[in-house]
Every structure is written in structure tokens, then in C-alpha cells.
Design brief:
The chain has 195 residues and is an alpha+beta fold. The protein is 19% helix and 43% strand.
Length: 195
């Protein structure tokens, strides 16, 4: 088992409360970068079906814009606090490369949920998406439940758009228990499968 796999497995197990100490944020960032490098070198490819289901965000990095060169600098990274439940979900349509994405954040009695279409490019492990529906509830009661954005109800146009114009995740680790990806903005994220 590669070094990065054991580090990421340890981070996920510790986050779940299954024992062991959490690796430091820098150790997890290094493991994610190593995993990404190996996935590129070995041209690893994952089927969309392996992403289907619900995943809880447990670790993420932000990014900072470099002042002099205009590039992106990876943030330090942090474990998502347990009192904030951040979840992503993927489901498929009959066409195995098309599906739906859901992203929700729950903080106490407040639930914010975004959903929309997704398309997967298997050779590149890229999942492009667009959020076009928003649900907001407070204490289990729906406060807002409407289409959002310029594409209100125009899901079909989404599938015709080039990836360059869409937000996406580039997945570089996909296992039964956890997944990791780099977002279009350059940040890294590690999710664990919901049990």
C-alpha cells in the first residue's frame, strides 16, 4: 500500500472516530499531492459508477492567489469541524456519463442544499457540474425551494457546454471508503463515504 493511501485511510478513520490520531493537516496535504501525482503518472481512470452515493467532506484546502506571478498557492488545509455537515452526492442517469450532483451544508437547524446536472469524462476523471436548484430549510421547514442562476430549467444546454466554462472536480483517488479531488479553483478535498 502506498504511503499516501495509508495516510489518507488513517485521516478518514480518525475523522470517523474509529481510533488513531489524525495526521496533521500538512501530512494530509502532502499525501493528497502525492496521490494526485501518482494518478497522473499512472494515468489512472475511474468509472463514474465508483463515485455514486453520498460522501461527507472531511478535509479541504483553500487557495490563495500569488501576488507576483498570478498563480495559485495551496492553502494549509483543515479538517471540517464535526458540527458542520458538508455532504456531496452523485447519482447517474441512464447514460452512464450523465448524472446529478447534490451539495449540502447543515449547521444546526439550517440546511442549504444545491443540486444540478453533472457530466463525467472518464478518461480524465473530470466531473463537471452546474448548480441550478436551491433548497433552504430551517428547523426542518422549507424556507426557499426554487431554480437559481441564469440556466433556470435549462439542463439540456448544460451537456453541450465545454468543460472550460464549467466548475469541475478532477478526481485522483477513488476507493470504496473515500475519494479525493482537485477543484477547478485549485483546492484539494477529501470525502469519506457516508455509512
Amino acid at each position: 500500500m502506498a504511503d499516501f493511501t495509508s495516510t489518507l485511510s488513517q485521516a478518514v478513520a480518525a475523522y470517523r472516530g474509529q481510533g488513531g490520531a489524525r495526521p496533521t493537516a500538512q501530512t494530509v496535504v502532502n499525501a493528497l499531492l502525492q496521490a494526485e501525482k501518482v494518478a497522473k503518472q499512472e494515468r489512472l481512470s475511474y468509472p463514474f459508477e465508483s463515485l455514486l452515493g453520498k460522501w461527507q467532506l472531511c478535509f479541504a484546502t483553500g487557495t490563495k492567489k500569488a501576488r507576483k506571478r498570478g498563480g495559485i498557492i495551496l492553502g494549509k488545509g483543515l479538517y471540517v469541524p464535526k458540527f458542520v455537515a458538508v455532504q456531496i452526492s452523485f447519482s447517474s442517469q441512464q447514460d452512464s456519463s450523465k448524472g446529478e450532483i447534490g451539495n449540502q451544508v447543515q449547521l444546526g437547524p439550517v440546511l442549504l442544499q444545491l443540486t444540478g446536472p453533472a457530466k463525467y469524462l472518464g478518461k480524465k476523471n473530470l466531473l463537471a457540474f452546474d448548480f441550478n436548484y436551491l433548497l433552504l430549510s430551517l428547523f426542518g421547514r422549507t424556507v426557499y425551494n426554487q431554480p437559481i442562476g441564469a440556466a433556470k430549467g435549462q439542463t439540456e444546454d448544460f451537456y453541450e457546454q465545454p468543460i472550460a466554462k464549467l466548475p469541475f472536480f478532477a478526481f485522483f483517488v477513488v476507493t470504496e471508503g473515500f475519494i479525493a479531488a482537485r477543484g477547478r479553483g485549485g483546492g484539494l478535498a477529501l470525502w469519506l463515504r457516508e455509512q
